[in-house]
Amino acid sequence: MSALLEVDGLTKRFGGLVAVKDIGFSIKGGEILGLIGPNGSGKSTVMKCIMGIEKPNAGTVKLEGINVAGWPTHRIARQGVGIVFQHSRPLQRQTILEHIKLALLPDNLLMLFTDHNVSRRAEEIAARVGLAKVMHRLPRTLPFADLRRLELAKAIARNPKVVLIDEPFAGLTKAEVADFSNLIGSFRAEGHAVLLVDHNVKSVAALVDRALAMYLGEYVADGTAEEVMRNETVRAVYLGGKIETAARPEREGKGRPPLLDVRNVGVLYGKAQALDDVSIHVGEGEFVSVVGLNGAGKTTLFNAISGLVPSSGAVTWKGEAIGGMTPAKIARMGIVQCPETRELFGDMSVRENLDLGGQHLPVAETQRQLQWLFELFPILHSRQGQVARTLSGGEQQMLAIARALMMKPKLLILDEPTLGLAPVILEQLSKALEKLRQTTDITVLLGEQNVTFALPHADRVYVLEHAHIVWEGDPARFAEEAGTGYL
Amino acid sequence: MLALQILIDGFAISSLYALGAAGFALMFGVSGVLNLSHGAIMVVAAVIAWWVGATFGVNPYLGAVAGILAALACAFFTYGVIARPIQNSPAIPKEEKEIFVLTGTLLWGIMLQGAIAYLFTNNPKTVRPLIEGVVMILGVRTPVNEILTAVLSWLVIGLLFLLVNRTRAGKSLLAASMNPRGLTLLGFELSNIYILVWAIYGIVAGIAGVLLGAFLGVSSDNAGTLTASAFSIVVLGGLGSVSGSLMAAYVVGYLETLTAYLVAPSIRTVPVLLLLVIVVYVRPQGLLGRR
Amino acid sequence: MIRSRTFQLVVPALLVLALLPFGVGGYILGLLIPAFYMAVFAMSWDLLFGFAGEVNFGPSFLIGIGAYTAALLNHYYATPIPLCLAAGAFAAVIAGVVLAVPALRLTGPYFGLVTLVAVLMLQNILVLFAGITGGEIGLDLPDVLAISDTTNYYYALVFMTISGAILFGLSRSPVGLILQASGQNAVEAAALGFNVAKHKLAAFCISAFFSGLAGAMLIFYMGTVSVGTVVDIAVGVNVIIAAVLGGRRTIIGAAFGAIFLIGAGELLRPLGQLSTFVVSAVALVVILFFPGGFMGRLLQTGGRE
Asked: How close A170 gets to chain B, by Cα (Å)?
């Protein structure tokens, strides 16, 4: 069977940044391809280029031989491509059935009455995805999994040749994932071509026929899911290379209550379960790493601790329950987060950013802190007056960490500090963290996808996968037990 | 002679516009609120200053203080009763919060306008100038008050600049306009930041209102036009850029003065509107805006 | 349909309104007639905002173009009323297209500003060319719709009912659904195969048509046209408040909001300037506590289940 979707030489630039470079693949009818990559790999951009949401700078996207690259989205949709977005908001006042009918409507200004056939077909589709019982209900009364089915229904309504699905299983429970998998599998059986876009191979391994891994916009590997998971370059990208550990003697005081105690915390984003019954604890002076792939829930966990998102369960700090306090208060209490997005004050200088971090300290203390931080991160000293926005990625990360340290935190939470940084910078960061660890008794909670970075400093490791903690232990055992199954 | 007159009048009115726009722009930059009751608050300040001066016969400085306090009170009301509840309301979806705040502040502005017209009629009121008298500048008779308006406007703008760039509190405002989340992570309560910015806004709008009242006089009818001018200036200068607003204020002030003197006072807003349309099409981010 | 809440609210209301001239005098009728035209303005605005998602801060731009086109034709060329109305509606549609073009390229407050500027420009131009347009004082029109209050009342009521039915029907039709999807998330709507630009343009044209036509009819009722009655920002503000008060995305709610606003304003007239204060205060309270508006509240549990 010839290919239904053929992508060749696809390239997309945003200003100076090359988001996608020379990507090509083909999918035949009755085949499912998984497009895999961490954050920033360009996989979402590829999907958008296929759908016409972004116009590629070069390359072709052929749908049954016809090149649709550069066409407006609605034309590509009508040509035979359906898409399921990761975050969709359904209209609140229309029933499920009406949503599906919408997907079946022609692009006609004069459609004043619904075709009888349209209604019938909509009901068939609703039944097909398992929504027959609820098709007359409003979206707000339905659970998350049903809303995802609705999105799937809308995407396949006009029987497209190709279906694109972004993060098919995000927010679904294990049981729901199985159901959904079967549903997607049935499209394949009908002869559609399916492209799944996801963070990691493992979650889609059972479903895809083939996988293609991307990193920083470029092709890394392809083959069966197994082959891709075992590919050296892929593992290097995700795990960061050879795993080394250097744990200190067990720092956690036996019998002493932990500094931070997180119990049975759950977080809902709308209806999606982003964290499910997660419990961790951090002892005084410990360095704890939470490893997990993008989308596993690390940021959600940290945001729940910092009070930035509402959560169920209990978070205790030095014995005091902090759920319900404002995030600013939690920060002032000593839990300081350096988030993945860094949240720097872009138009202010390095020095000004640091000063703001030290706002709550008396002036003399601020000076001392600054001195210490300049020793820890010499590059910040030389770039004191430079505007934060113009710093390189690594420098910005160091500034973000330094700024957080200005607050003299009791617990420093670091979320994915290595994201998008070159190996040389990782070295510097690693050294700085090591120095921090050796010379102070600061407590650190680190969240990382890059296991090679996360392990050497850690006293203990948690593995977070798909909203659950699946492993806990010391770093030495990680390599043996969890490392291989990590991807 | 005419050129000099235009230069002086234009400068004075532009300075006043600049002051009003600076407050408006600061408010938008830090809290994201386009306060459509801006003009009404300025009118309240001017009218209260006039009323206190006329009724109690006190010296104009006290009247001015009363006016400024009135503006401050109105600003806090706008924040506490309209802007904050709407921002926090779970019943309003996120994309619609902006239009609700706009409509809410619009209604509040109309309420203030109606109240003033009811209590004091809509006849123009002039606040007694802080310093009376006339001077000659290079052959042009200029009221001292006019010079005072320009000087005081710039004094306040200067203080504002110092506050925002040199003090700790001010820097936190600046940071809030760049990244409110970053501030929260550093332990700053955003609600305190917002109270501070509304307080500063109330005082600045109050001063601008009193100065306007002394310079040109105000009536409740002016409320809408004042808001429209501030809005236009801020968009022209670039939403979120206070320095852009200052520049734009001068462009608008001079354009209006030139038109009023050289063509006709009744259509002095037309060239400004044309400019606005061109800017929105060609360079929507304004002169110095970033987004 | 008989069981739909909207139906249950609207039909009795219409019946009452239809029978009103038999019971009340010219004063109340004279009050309701402009209210009915205002209702059409507000309903057209709701179609654009509630469905296409475009905030128009200057609806009086479209209304004014429609009204003045009709007025000028009638005043200077003694064109018969039906032709004036048609010309007014047509001119308003052109104006709607003019407004739509930037709308499709600008977002957020910038588009709102364009609409605001459009009104101010129109106002200034009309005043500038006062020789032709009558400026602030306005023009007298040789023709009027009718002399008797009752006839005018029925013209207005029927017009409002038909316009309302069409606009409401559109909002509930498949086209309305597409429009709503386009307004909420243009990318997702496009991914379903809809040319969002085309649909939004259509929404502008429809909104403009009804606004312009209603504006033209209004001035032929009043017998004069002036800047203050059809172009002023205040007119636009009332339209927006009426629509938001009545409930976004309900179309019918806008009509209720308009009638309430005009009625309340009139009832409170003895209070003088305080009347605007009170009406605005009430509107503010409604917005803060019932963001869904009158209709939103009433339709909360009803409708589709």
From this structure: 23
CB atoms within 10 A of CB A246: 12
Do B171 and A344 count as a contact with CB atoms less than 8 A apart? no
Record: contact A404-B174, CB cut-off 8 A: no
Report the C-alpha gap between B278 and B258 in whole angstroms.
19
ipTM of the complex: 0.82
Residues A223 and A303 in one domain: no
* C303 pLDDT tier (thresholds 50, 70, 90): very low
User: What proportion of chain C, given as a percentage, has pLDDT over 90?
Assistant: 23
Residue A53 distance to chain C (closest CA, Å): 7
| Confidence bin at A248 (pLDDT 50/70/90) | low
A340 & A225 share domain: no
* The pLDDT value given to residue A46: 94
Domain ranges of chain B: 20-222
Dist. CA C121–CA B279, nearest whole Å: 15
* A89 in reach of chain C (CB within 8 A): yes
Give phi and psi for A14, each to the nearest 5.
-115, 100
A155 and A281 belong to one structural domain: no
Residue A486 covered by a domain: no
Dihedral pair phi/psi, residue A31, rounded to 5°: -130, 145
The residue to which tokens 């009915």 are assigned? C36
DSSP E strands, chain C: 139-140, 224-225
Is A55's Cβ below 8 Å from some Cβ in C?
Answer: no
Claim to verify: residue A442 and residue A371 sit in the same structural domain: yes
User: A254 lies in a domain?
Assistant: no
Q: Which chain C residues are closer than 8 Å to A85 by Cβ?
A: 188, 191
pLDDT at position A256, please? 62
- Which chains are adjacent to chain B, needing at least 3 Cβ pairs under 8 Å? A, C
Per-residue pLDDT at C288: 84
Residue A487 lies in a domain: no
Chain A residue with minimum CA distance to B171:
A356
Instruction: Report which of A133, A127, A178, A179 is spatially closest to residue A156, judged by C-alpha positions.
Output: A127
Q: Is A339 in Cβ contact with B168 (below 8 Å)?
A: no
Same structural domain for residues A267 and A193? Answer: no
Q: pTM for the whole thing?
A: 0.84
Instruction: Specify whether A218 is located in the same domain as A305.
Output: no
Vertex B19: Cα angle to B17 and B24 (nearest 5):
90
pLDDT tens for each residue of chain B, 291 residues long: 778 888 888 899 899 999 999 999 899 889 888 898 999 999 999 999 988 888 887 788 888 999 999 999 999 999 999 999 988 888 777 777 887 888 889 889 988 988 888 888 878 888 877 777 788 877 777 888 888 889 999 999 999 999 988 888 889 998 998 899 999 999 999 999 999 999 999 999 999 999 998 888 888 888 887 887 888 888 888 877 788 889 999 999 998 888 888 887 777 777 888 888 787 777 766 776 654
Contact criterion met (CB < 8 Å) for C124 and B269: yes
Q: What phi and psi, each to the nearest 5 degrees, are found at residue C191? A: -65, -20
SS3 of B93, please? coil
Q: Among the three residues A210, A239, A268, which one is the final residue of a domain in this structure?
A: A239
Instruction: Provide the number of structural domains found in chain A.
Output: 2
Dihedral of the alpha carbons of C137, C140, C144, C146, in degrees to the nearest 10: 70
List the A81-84 sheet strands across, edge first. A81-84, A162-166, A193-198, A31-36, A210-215, A218-223
Q: Is residue A382 domain-resident?
A: yes
Residue range of the domain that includes A36: 3-239
Question: Of B63, B20, B2, B29, whose CA–CA distance to B202 is shortest?
Answer: B20
* 8-state DSSP, B187: T
Q: Do C195 and A77 touch (CB under 8 A)?
A: no
Pair (A189, A271) in one structural domain: no
Nearest 5°: CA angle at C33, between C31 and C39?
A: 105
- Same domain, yes or no: A226 and A316: no
Complete domains list, chain C, with CATH? 5-16+30-298 (1.10.3470)
